[in-house]
Automatic annotation (TrEMBL):
<protein>
    <submittedName>
        <fullName>Tripartite tricarboxylate transporter substrate binding protein</fullName>
    </submittedName>
</protein>
<comment type="similarity">
    <text>Belongs to the UPF0065 (bug) family.</text>
</comment>
<dbReference type="InterPro" id="IPR005064">
    <property type="entry name" value="BUG"/>
</dbReference>
<dbReference type="Pfam" id="PF03401">
    <property type="entry name" value="TctC"/>
</dbReference>
<dbReference type="InterPro" id="IPR042100">
    <property type="entry name" value="Bug_dom1"/>
</dbReference>
Length: 295
């Protein structure tokens, strides 16, 4: 085991992924009897930090903690600095959960069926906001357009908080995001959650139906994952996988992930790799069909 393991988070400190990574690091160090630290390398929609790890040493000393957003970014980036399906090895996926679809309370929409009906009544006029082109929320909405045979209009912002403000104010109609993104506006009565994006009901959101009830087959889940550079010894990957799976089931991690409706996901490295490949294939297909490209 390396004397020091550095977990790179490709986002700014304080982001949801960063908070989870720091909890993983705090528990992983004692379990592996080594020092584990977190280093933030934000920029490039997560691709800068990912590139550092993909091209880093293959001895387990430099790992990456990120989310499915890295895969959606890779699928929409014209000249990605690395291949997410071959240059990195998924070690473990501590948690998975649905995104939430919420609307402004200035709309009359209260159910998935009403959302679809409103979109069909006025194609390309029902608006949704995201933190930018090519984000997981953007692609999730495009996938919904196909599954429900509707056309909602994308309004990209320079940050999710700006989109939340405009949705709460009724300037745009809806958002697709993790629950904590707009939880305060929901509590204040300015936004209304109407559905989740997982194909099946979620115990975290017992009162929210899946959007798949009106858009058969529609499914988008947000997972977090720990990666190593391709070529890292399989025995080391397996050892860390075992420890992270146990951390995912810890009381501290379960409580932390509950805010976003995520639950522990205990998978093998091989199962994690399949999820990455499947996610990439889905988002690449959507990006190609919709001509969504990040330069």
């Amino acid at each position: 085991m390396p004397p020091l393991i550095k977990i790179i988070v490709p986002f700014a400190p304080g982001a949801s992924t960063d908070v989870i990574a720091r909890l993983v690091a705090s528990q992983l160090g004692p379990r592996l009897q080594t020092n584990v630290i977190v280093e933030n390398r934000a920029g490039g929609s997560g691709m800068i930090g990912g590139s550092v790890v993909a091209k880093g040493p293959k001895d387990g000393s430099t790992l990456l903690f990120t989310s499915v957003s890295m895969v959606s970014t890779a699928a929409t980036t014209r000249n990605a600095p690395f291949d997410v399906t071959t240059d990195l090895v998924p070690i473990a996926m501590p948690g998975v959960g649905p995104l939430v679809i919420a609307v402004s309370t200035k709309t009359d929409i209260k159910t998935p069926a009403e959302f679809v009906a409103a979109a069909r009544a006025k194609p390309d006029q029902l608006t949704h906001g995201t933190s930018g082109v090519g984000t997981i929320a953007h692609l999730a909405a495009e996938l919904l357009n196909d599954a429900a045979k509707i056309q909602i209009k994308h309004i990209p912002y320079k940050g999710a908080s700006l989109a939340v403000t405009d949705t709460a104010g009724g300037i745009i109609d809806a958002m697709i995001a993790v629950n904590t993104t707009f939880a305060s506006q929901i509590q204040a009565g300015r936004m209304r959650p109407i559905a989740i994006t997982s194909e099946k009901p979620s115990p975290a959101f017992p009162n929210l139906p899946p959007m798949a009830t009106v858009a058969p087959g529609y499914s988008v889940e947000l997972w977090t994952a720990l990666f190593a550079p391709a070529g890292t010894p399989p025995a080391l990957v397996k050892r860390i996988n075992h420890e992270v799976n146990e951390i995912a089931n810890s009381k501290e991690m379960v409580e932390l992930m509950r805010g976003d409706g995520a639950t522990p996901l205990n998978v093998t490295p091989e199962e994690a790799a399949k999820r990455v490949r499947d996610s990439y294939a889905t988002w690449k297909r959507v990006a190609t069909a919709k001509n969504i490209v990040l330069e």
